Amino acid sequence: MSQFSKSARRWVAAMLFGLPGLGLAAEEIVVYSARNEQLIKPLFDAYTQETGTQIKFLTDSEGPLLEKLKTEGAATPADLLITVDAGNLWLAAKEGVLANVQSKTLEANIPAHLRDPDGYWFGLSVRARTIVYHTGRAKPAELSTYEDLASPKWKGRLCLRTSKKVYNQSLVAMMIARQGEAKTEEIVKGWVANLATEPLPDDTKVMEAIAAGQCDVGIVNTYYYGRLMKKRPDLKLALFWPNQQDRGVHVNVSGAGITAHAKHKAAAIKFLEWLSSEKAQNLFADENLEYPANRKVKPHPNVAAWGSFKQDTINVSEAGRLQVQAVKLMDRAGYK
Ligand code: FE
Protein backbone atom coordinates (compact mmCIF):
# COMPACT_ATOMS: atom_id res chain seq x y z
CA MET A 1 0.00 0.00 0.00
CA SER A 2 1.36 3.41 -0.90
CA GLN A 3 2.33 5.96 1.72
CA PHE A 4 -0.42 8.22 0.38
CA SER A 5 -3.22 5.74 0.83
CA LYS A 6 -1.94 4.87 4.31
CA SER A 7 -2.10 8.46 5.46
CA ALA A 8 -5.42 8.90 3.67
CA ARG A 9 -6.77 6.00 5.70
CA ARG A 10 -5.58 7.56 8.93
CA TRP A 11 -7.19 10.82 7.94
CA VAL A 12 -10.49 9.07 7.29
CA ALA A 13 -10.31 7.44 10.70
CA ALA A 14 -9.74 10.87 12.25
CA MET A 15 -12.77 12.27 10.44
CA LEU A 16 -14.99 9.44 11.57
CA PHE A 17 -13.92 9.13 15.18
CA GLY A 18 -11.92 12.19 16.03
CA LEU A 19 -14.47 14.96 15.73
CA PRO A 20 -14.78 16.73 19.03
CA GLY A 21 -18.17 16.78 20.68
CA LEU A 22 -19.42 13.57 19.11
CA GLY A 23 -18.31 11.43 22.04
CA LEU A 24 -16.71 9.03 19.58
CA ALA A 25 -13.09 10.10 19.89
CA ALA A 26 -10.98 7.08 18.99
CA GLU A 27 -8.51 6.17 21.70
CA GLU A 28 -4.91 6.17 20.70
CA ILE A 29 -1.81 4.55 22.17
CA VAL A 30 1.83 5.11 21.30
CA VAL A 31 4.19 2.13 21.68
CA TYR A 32 8.00 2.02 21.64
CA SER A 33 9.05 -1.52 20.85
CA ALA A 34 12.32 -3.43 20.80
CA ARG A 35 10.39 -6.33 19.32
CA ASN A 36 10.38 -5.92 15.57
CA GLU A 37 7.44 -4.84 13.46
CA GLN A 38 6.82 -8.32 12.07
CA LEU A 39 6.20 -9.62 15.62
CA ILE A 40 4.05 -6.78 16.96
CA LYS A 41 2.08 -5.43 13.99
CA PRO A 42 -0.37 -8.38 13.84
CA LEU A 43 -1.17 -7.79 17.53
CA PHE A 44 -1.76 -4.09 17.03
CA ASP A 45 -4.00 -4.76 14.05
CA ALA A 46 -6.04 -7.33 15.97
CA TYR A 47 -6.48 -4.93 18.89
CA THR A 48 -7.50 -2.03 16.66
CA GLN A 49 -10.00 -4.25 14.90
CA GLU A 50 -11.49 -5.39 18.20
CA THR A 51 -11.59 -2.09 20.06
CA GLY A 52 -11.14 0.74 17.57
CA THR A 53 -8.10 1.94 19.53
CA GLN A 54 -5.42 3.21 17.16
CA ILE A 55 -1.83 2.18 17.88
CA LYS A 56 1.14 4.18 16.67
CA PHE A 57 4.52 2.59 17.14
CA LEU A 58 8.24 3.02 16.81
CA THR A 59 10.67 0.09 16.73
CA ASP A 60 14.38 0.22 17.58
CA SER A 61 16.92 -1.72 19.67
CA GLU A 62 16.45 -1.69 23.44
CA GLY A 63 19.42 0.62 24.17
CA PRO A 64 18.37 3.49 21.86
CA LEU A 65 14.71 3.21 22.96
CA LEU A 66 15.69 3.57 26.62
CA GLU A 67 17.93 6.55 25.78
CA LYS A 68 15.08 8.11 23.81
CA LEU A 69 12.65 7.74 26.71
CA LYS A 70 15.19 9.29 29.10
CA THR A 71 15.92 12.20 26.76
CA GLU A 72 12.26 12.91 26.03
CA GLY A 73 11.35 12.79 29.71
CA ALA A 74 7.89 14.19 30.43
CA ALA A 75 7.49 15.16 26.76
CA THR A 76 7.59 11.58 25.48
CA PRO A 77 4.69 10.53 23.27
CA ALA A 78 5.21 6.89 24.33
CA ASP A 79 2.62 5.17 26.52
CA LEU A 80 4.04 1.64 26.50
CA LEU A 81 7.53 0.17 26.21
CA ILE A 82 7.82 -3.36 24.83
CA THR A 83 11.24 -4.96 25.13
CA VAL A 84 13.04 -8.25 25.62
CA ASP A 85 14.85 -9.67 28.64
CA ALA A 86 14.05 -8.94 32.27
CA GLY A 87 17.50 -7.33 32.53
CA ASN A 88 16.40 -4.62 30.07
CA LEU A 89 12.96 -4.18 31.67
CA TRP A 90 14.57 -3.91 35.09
CA LEU A 91 16.99 -1.27 33.79
CA ALA A 92 14.14 0.76 32.25
CA ALA A 93 12.33 0.75 35.62
CA LYS A 94 15.54 1.70 37.44
CA GLU A 95 16.15 4.59 35.02
CA GLY A 96 12.71 5.94 35.94
CA VAL A 97 11.02 5.70 32.54
CA LEU A 98 8.30 3.26 33.65
CA ALA A 99 5.25 3.69 35.91
CA ASN A 100 4.02 1.09 38.38
CA VAL A 101 0.64 -0.39 37.69
CA GLN A 102 -1.67 -2.35 39.95
CA SER A 103 -3.97 -4.53 37.87
CA LYS A 104 -5.92 -7.55 39.10
CA THR A 105 -6.12 -8.76 35.49
CA LEU A 106 -2.35 -8.67 34.98
CA GLU A 107 -1.74 -10.26 38.37
CA ALA A 108 -4.13 -13.08 37.51
CA ASN A 109 -2.82 -13.65 33.97
CA ILE A 110 0.94 -13.38 34.53
CA PRO A 111 2.64 -15.69 37.06
CA ALA A 112 4.33 -13.77 39.89
CA HIS A 113 7.89 -14.78 38.92
CA LEU A 114 7.45 -13.36 35.40
CA ARG A 115 6.60 -9.80 36.44
CA ASP A 116 8.14 -7.03 38.47
CA PRO A 117 7.17 -7.37 42.17
CA ASP A 118 6.36 -3.63 42.21
CA GLY A 119 4.32 -3.67 38.98
CA TYR A 120 6.70 -1.65 36.79
CA TRP A 121 6.72 -4.31 34.04
CA PHE A 122 5.06 -7.58 33.09
CA GLY A 123 6.45 -10.57 31.19
CA LEU A 124 4.25 -11.44 28.21
CA SER A 125 6.15 -14.34 26.68
CA VAL A 126 8.71 -16.77 28.08
CA ARG A 127 11.98 -17.76 26.47
CA ALA A 128 13.85 -20.73 27.89
CA ARG A 129 17.67 -20.64 27.79
CA THR A 130 18.59 -24.28 27.71
CA ILE A 131 21.19 -26.81 26.61
CA VAL A 132 21.49 -27.85 22.96
CA TYR A 133 23.57 -30.87 21.93
CA HIS A 134 24.72 -32.84 18.89
CA THR A 135 22.65 -36.01 18.76
CA GLY A 136 25.53 -38.01 17.30
CA ARG A 137 28.31 -36.86 19.64
CA ALA A 138 26.58 -36.29 22.98
CA LYS A 139 24.01 -38.40 24.78
CA PRO A 140 21.16 -37.01 26.86
CA ALA A 141 22.35 -39.37 29.61
CA GLU A 142 25.65 -37.42 29.77
CA LEU A 143 23.76 -34.17 30.35
CA SER A 144 22.24 -32.97 33.61
CA THR A 145 22.72 -29.33 34.64
CA TYR A 146 24.20 -25.99 33.55
CA GLU A 147 26.76 -26.52 36.34
CA ASP A 148 27.79 -29.92 34.94
CA LEU A 149 28.94 -28.22 31.70
CA ALA A 150 31.90 -27.07 33.82
CA SER A 151 33.01 -30.65 34.54
CA PRO A 152 36.17 -31.99 32.83
CA LYS A 153 34.18 -34.45 30.69
CA TRP A 154 33.15 -31.49 28.50
CA LYS A 155 36.72 -30.25 27.93
CA GLY A 156 36.98 -28.92 24.37
CA ARG A 157 33.32 -29.81 23.71
CA LEU A 158 31.47 -26.63 24.77
CA CYS A 159 30.47 -23.60 22.67
CA LEU A 160 29.04 -20.44 24.24
CA ARG A 161 27.75 -17.12 23.00
CA THR A 162 29.64 -14.02 24.14
CA SER A 163 29.18 -12.83 27.73
CA LYS A 164 28.39 -9.36 26.31
CA LYS A 165 24.86 -10.50 25.47
CA VAL A 166 22.28 -9.74 28.15
CA TYR A 167 20.86 -13.30 27.84
CA ASN A 168 24.06 -14.75 29.32
CA GLN A 169 24.33 -11.95 31.88
CA SER A 170 20.80 -12.84 33.03
CA LEU A 171 21.60 -16.56 33.14
CA VAL A 172 24.68 -15.95 35.31
CA ALA A 173 22.80 -13.42 37.48
CA MET A 174 20.17 -16.07 38.22
CA MET A 175 22.90 -18.57 39.09
CA ILE A 176 24.33 -16.04 41.56
CA ALA A 177 20.85 -15.60 43.07
CA ARG A 178 20.45 -19.36 43.44
CA GLN A 179 23.87 -20.47 44.64
CA GLY A 180 25.94 -17.44 45.50
CA GLU A 181 28.86 -15.72 43.86
CA ALA A 182 31.75 -18.05 44.79
CA LYS A 183 30.05 -21.21 43.48
CA THR A 184 28.88 -19.44 40.31
CA GLU A 185 32.36 -18.11 39.59
CA GLU A 186 33.80 -21.60 39.90
CA ILE A 187 31.21 -22.87 37.39
CA VAL A 188 31.81 -20.07 34.89
CA LYS A 189 35.58 -20.67 35.09
CA GLY A 190 34.88 -24.33 34.36
CA TRP A 191 32.82 -23.36 31.28
CA VAL A 192 35.64 -21.17 30.01
CA ALA A 193 38.13 -24.02 30.52
CA ASN A 194 35.88 -26.31 28.46
CA LEU A 195 35.37 -23.98 25.48
CA ALA A 196 36.15 -25.43 22.08
CA THR A 197 36.20 -21.98 20.42
CA GLU A 198 36.24 -18.32 21.40
CA PRO A 199 32.75 -17.21 22.51
CA LEU A 200 30.51 -16.77 19.45
CA PRO A 201 28.47 -13.70 18.45
CA ASP A 202 25.00 -15.25 18.61
CA ASP A 203 22.95 -18.32 19.53
CA THR A 204 22.57 -19.46 15.92
CA LYS A 205 26.38 -19.48 15.48
CA VAL A 206 26.61 -21.67 18.59
CA MET A 207 24.27 -24.24 17.03
CA GLU A 208 26.00 -24.04 13.65
CA ALA A 209 29.34 -24.70 15.35
CA ILE A 210 27.85 -27.74 17.11
CA ALA A 211 26.33 -29.01 13.86
CA ALA A 212 29.66 -28.49 12.07
CA GLY A 213 31.54 -30.57 14.65
CA GLN A 214 33.47 -27.77 16.37
CA CYS A 215 31.82 -28.64 19.70
CA ASP A 216 29.14 -30.97 21.11
CA VAL A 217 27.04 -28.84 23.48
CA GLY A 218 26.00 -25.23 24.02
CA ILE A 219 23.44 -22.98 25.70
CA VAL A 220 20.80 -21.20 23.59
CA ASN A 221 17.33 -19.66 23.67
CA THR A 222 14.84 -22.17 22.35
CA TYR A 223 13.30 -19.92 19.68
CA TYR A 224 16.67 -19.73 17.85
CA TYR A 225 16.68 -23.53 17.83
CA GLY A 226 13.14 -23.49 16.41
CA ARG A 227 14.08 -21.02 13.68
CA LEU A 228 17.24 -22.90 12.67
CA MET A 229 15.57 -26.33 12.61
CA LYS A 230 12.75 -24.97 10.47
CA LYS A 231 15.36 -23.98 7.87
CA ARG A 232 17.67 -26.96 8.39
CA PRO A 233 15.63 -29.92 9.70
CA ASP A 234 18.56 -32.17 8.75
CA LEU A 235 20.83 -30.79 11.49
CA LYS A 236 21.64 -33.31 14.22
CA LEU A 237 20.71 -31.00 17.10
CA ALA A 238 18.36 -31.50 20.03
CA LEU A 239 17.35 -29.57 23.12
CA PHE A 240 17.95 -30.82 26.65
CA TRP A 241 16.13 -29.48 29.73
CA PRO A 242 18.71 -29.13 32.52
CA ASN A 243 18.30 -28.93 36.31
CA GLN A 244 15.03 -30.86 36.32
CA GLN A 245 15.95 -32.41 39.68
CA ASP A 246 16.53 -29.02 41.29
CA ARG A 247 15.59 -25.42 40.36
CA GLY A 248 14.56 -25.98 36.73
CA VAL A 249 15.42 -24.39 33.39
CA HIS A 250 16.46 -20.72 33.30
CA VAL A 251 13.68 -18.68 31.73
CA ASN A 252 13.45 -15.06 30.77
CA VAL A 253 10.71 -12.90 29.33
CA SER A 254 9.87 -10.39 26.73
CA GLY A 255 7.45 -7.95 28.23
CA ALA A 256 6.18 -4.45 28.62
CA GLY A 257 5.65 -1.57 31.02
CA ILE A 258 3.58 1.60 31.01
CA THR A 259 5.81 4.66 30.64
CA ALA A 260 6.22 7.13 33.50
CA HIS A 261 4.79 9.98 31.43
CA ALA A 262 2.10 8.13 29.45
CA LYS A 263 -0.47 10.49 27.94
CA HIS A 264 -2.97 7.67 27.41
CA LYS A 265 -2.30 5.68 30.54
CA ALA A 266 -5.72 4.09 31.03
CA ALA A 267 -5.91 3.02 27.38
CA ALA A 268 -2.36 1.63 27.53
CA ILE A 269 -3.15 -0.40 30.67
CA LYS A 270 -6.23 -1.82 28.93
CA PHE A 271 -4.03 -2.83 25.98
CA LEU A 272 -1.43 -4.41 28.29
CA GLU A 273 -4.18 -6.39 30.01
CA TRP A 274 -5.42 -7.53 26.61
CA LEU A 275 -1.89 -8.65 25.67
CA SER A 276 -1.89 -10.91 28.74
CA SER A 277 -5.29 -12.40 27.90
CA GLU A 278 -5.95 -15.84 26.48
CA LYS A 279 -6.94 -14.49 23.09
CA ALA A 280 -3.76 -12.44 22.59
CA GLN A 281 -1.12 -14.64 24.19
CA ASN A 282 -0.65 -16.98 21.23
CA LEU A 283 -0.38 -13.99 18.91
CA PHE A 284 2.34 -12.57 21.16
CA ALA A 285 4.33 -15.78 21.64
CA ASP A 286 3.85 -18.02 18.60
CA GLU A 287 5.35 -15.88 15.83
CA ASN A 288 8.70 -15.93 17.68
CA LEU A 289 8.30 -19.55 18.85
CA GLU A 290 8.18 -18.50 22.51
CA TYR A 291 6.01 -19.79 25.36
CA PRO A 292 2.91 -17.85 26.43
CA ALA A 293 3.40 -16.29 29.88
CA ASN A 294 -0.27 -16.91 30.75
CA ARG A 295 -0.40 -20.50 32.03
CA LYS A 296 -3.93 -21.05 30.68
CA VAL A 297 -2.59 -20.76 27.13
CA LYS A 298 -0.87 -23.66 25.35
CA PRO A 299 2.28 -23.04 23.30
CA HIS A 300 2.24 -23.45 19.52
CA PRO A 301 2.34 -27.19 18.59
CA ASN A 302 5.86 -26.81 17.09
CA VAL A 303 7.06 -25.43 20.43
CA ALA A 304 5.10 -27.96 22.50
CA ALA A 305 6.86 -30.70 20.48
CA TRP A 306 10.15 -29.90 22.28
CA GLY A 307 8.61 -31.39 25.42
CA SER A 308 7.53 -29.95 28.71
CA PHE A 309 9.94 -28.95 31.44
CA LYS A 310 10.15 -27.52 34.92
CA GLN A 311 11.13 -23.85 34.84
CA ASP A 312 13.00 -21.92 37.51
CA THR A 313 10.41 -19.86 39.36
CA ILE A 314 12.82 -17.37 40.88
CA ASN A 315 11.58 -13.87 40.03
CA VAL A 316 13.10 -12.81 36.69
CA SER A 317 13.77 -9.34 38.13
CA GLU A 318 16.80 -10.93 39.84
CA ALA A 319 18.41 -10.88 36.38
CA GLY A 320 18.42 -7.10 36.57
CA ARG A 321 19.28 -6.74 40.22
CA LEU A 322 22.39 -8.92 39.88
CA GLN A 323 23.39 -7.92 36.34
CA VAL A 324 26.40 -5.77 37.27
CA GLN A 325 27.66 -8.47 39.61
CA ALA A 326 27.24 -11.06 36.84
CA VAL A 327 29.17 -8.97 34.31
CA LYS A 328 32.07 -8.50 36.75
CA LEU A 329 32.07 -12.19 37.63
CA MET A 330 32.21 -13.26 33.97
CA ASP A 331 35.07 -10.83 33.42
CA ARG A 332 37.05 -12.27 36.36
CA ALA A 333 36.38 -15.78 35.08
CA GLY A 334 37.83 -14.88 31.67
CA TYR A 335 34.51 -15.37 29.87
CA LYS A 336 34.74 -12.93 26.96
FE1 FE B 1 16.88 -13.06 20.91
Radius of gyration of CA atoms, rounded to a whole number: 21 Å
CATH superfamily of the largest domain: Periplasmic binding protein-like II
The hetero molecules present are: fe (iii) ion
Structural class: alpha/beta
Mean pLDDT: 93
Shape: globular
- Beta-sheet strand percentage? 15-25%
Distance between the termini: 46 Å
Layout of helices and strands:
Elements: H1 3-17, E1 28-33, H2 37-51, E2 54-59, H3 62-72, E3 80-84, H4 86-94, H5 104-109, E4 122-134, E5 158-159, H6 166-179, H7 181-194, H8 203-211, E6 217-221, H9 222-231, E7 237-240, E8 250-258, H10 265-275, H11 278-286, E9 291-292, H12 301-304, H13 318-321, H14 323-332
Parallel strand pairs: 1-2, 1-3, 5-6
Antiparallel strand pairs: 3-8, 4-6, 4-7, 4-8, 4-9
Helix pairs in contact: 6-7, 6-14, 7-14
The structure holds fe (iii) ion (FE).
Description:
With 336 residues, the chain is an alpha/beta fold. It has two domains: 28-126 and 252-303, Periplasmic binding protein-like II (D-Maltodextrin-Binding Protein, domain 2, 3-Layer(aba) Sandwich), CATH 3.40.190; 127-250 and 319-333, 3-Layer(aba) Sandwich (D-Maltodextrin-Binding Protein, domain 2), CATH 3.40.190. The protein is 42% helix and 15% strand. It contains 14 helices and nine strands. The chain has helices at 3-17, 37-51, 62-72, 86-94, 104-109, 166-179, 181-194, 203-211, 222-231, 265-275, 278-286, 301-304, 318-321, 323-332; strands at 28-33, 54-59, 80-84, 122-134, 158-159, 217-221, 237-240, 250-258, 291-292. Strands 1, 2, 3, 4, 5, 6, 7, 8 and 9 form a nine-stranded mixed beta sheet that branches. The longest helix is centred in the first third of the chain and has 15 residues, at 3-17. The N and C termini lie far apart (46 Å). Bound molecules: fe (iii) ion. Pfam families: SBP_bac_8 (PF13416). GO terms for molecular function: metal ion binding. This is Fe(3+) ABC transporter substrate-binding protein. Keywords: Iron, Metal-binding, Signal. InterPro entries: Ferric-bd, SBP.
